[in-house]
Amino acid sequence: MLKNPSIFGLGAAILSIALWLILNFFNPYSNETNNEPTLITLFMLVFPAFIAVISFFTSRKLLMLIAFIWSLPLSLYMLMTPGIFLLFGITCFFYLLSYILMSKKKGIRILLILTGSFTSTKSKALLVPLTDQDSLIK
After folding, report:
1. What does the UniProt keyword field contain (predicted)?
2. With 60 as the cut, is the pLDDT of residue 134 above it?
3. Residues 12, 18, 21, 22, CA torsion sign
4. From CA 72, how far away is CA 65, in angstroms rounded?
5. Per-residue three-class SS string for the chain
């Protein structure tokens, strides 16, 4: 088990900052005369990365969730692009993974249930769908 599960968020933040530098300063298709896309991507991708770094050093899981929610819209857009910049979408979901893992037992249980590795009878009872309307009332 990881001692500091927010390491995924730190790695994603570092990768996001590096990708942003490539996107804005080493991209042959970027327009160097227009600063608006640079400022938008700075606000939507780099600032959440800095919040994720702060979350790593302070162990505040809420900051990691804020970084995920903040970067989600532009990261989903970048996820649809063909190229290296689709990694922005992956880094965003690593913020979410880090938040879930930072939630200690509850987050680990959720991940195990989602992957099908959790074999407790309680988790199996949660996964059984209710088909009878009368059982909802009881």
Report:
1. Membrane, Transmembrane, Transmembrane helix
2. no
3. negative
4. 10
5. CCCCCCHHHHHHHHHHHHHHHHHHHCCCCCCCCCCHHHHHHHHHHHHHHHHHHHHHHHCCHHHHHHHHHHHHHHHHHHHCCCCHHHHHHHHHHHHHHHHHHHCHHHHHHHHHHHHCCCCCHHHHHHHCCCCCHHHHHC
Can you give the residue ranges of every domain in the chain? 7-102
Q: What are phi and psi of 100, to 5 degrees?
A: -65, -45
- List Cα–Cα distances, 15 to 64, 77, 127, in angstroms: 15, 17, 36
* pLDDT greater at residue 4 or residue 113: 4
- Please report which confidence band the pLDDT of residue 125 belongs to, taking 50, 70 and 90 as the band edges: very low
Both tokens of residue 128? 């059984």
d(CA 72, CA 7): 19
